[in-house]
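Summary of Year 1 activities. Much of the first year was spent building the evaluation harness for sequence design. The harness presents a backbone, in tokenized form, and records the residue chosen at every position. We chose the following record to illustrate the format because it has been used consistently in internal testing since the harness was completed.
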């Protein structure tokens, strides 16, 4: 099972829908978490993000999924990669978990280290996999402090419902 983090703060509803419709043509999307509006990290002048997670099945290896599929979708939707890691973005697609794999390579860190620090990743991930233990440490994600913090997460319920309907979930 593969979990992909999805986020955008430039025309987010349209860009997320477009990205996931395109992704559905390459992998099988099995579930979509609730999406949340969140303030951008360290950039109060930017518009809020919409963040959520999709659970997918694929026969693609992690590198192909990341570099060919996800980066290809990001590029087609207008994502430019700037030196500023916190710059506004049309779409951000990241592999958070790839089965029980542990990878630490340039451009591919699985499990994604941000899972343990970012509530907008931990909480939707737990929605899709409540008993999840992280493969690198065996730590149960539900026990991580970020999994308990909902401050700053505003559910985007209408968007989540619309997105799931469009994807047939």
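For this record, the design step produced the sequence shown next.
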């Amino acid at each position: 099972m593969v979990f992909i983090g999805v986020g955008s703060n430039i025309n987010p509803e349209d860009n997320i829908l477009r990205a996931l419709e395109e992704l559905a043509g390459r992998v099988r999307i099995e579930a979509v978490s609730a999406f949340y509006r969140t303030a951008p990290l360290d950039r109060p002048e930017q518009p809020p993000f919409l963040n959520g997670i999709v659970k997918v099945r694929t026969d693609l290896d992690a590198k192909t999924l990341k570099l060919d599929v996800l980066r290809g979708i990001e590029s087609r939707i207008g994502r430019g990669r700037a030196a500023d890691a916190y710059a506004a973005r049309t779409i951000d697609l990241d592999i958070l978990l790839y089965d029980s794999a542990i990878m630490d390579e340039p451009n591919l860190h699985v499990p994604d280290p941000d899972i343990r620090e970012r509530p907008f990743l931990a909480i939707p991930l737990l929605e899709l996999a409540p008993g999840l233990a992280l493969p690198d440490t065996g730590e149960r994600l539900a026990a991580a402090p970020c999994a308990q913090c909902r401050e700053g997460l505003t559910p985007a319920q209408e968007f989540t419902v619309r997105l799931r309907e469009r994807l047939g979930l």
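Residues 62-76 form the longest helix (15 residues). Quantitative recovery figures across the full test set are reported in Table 2.
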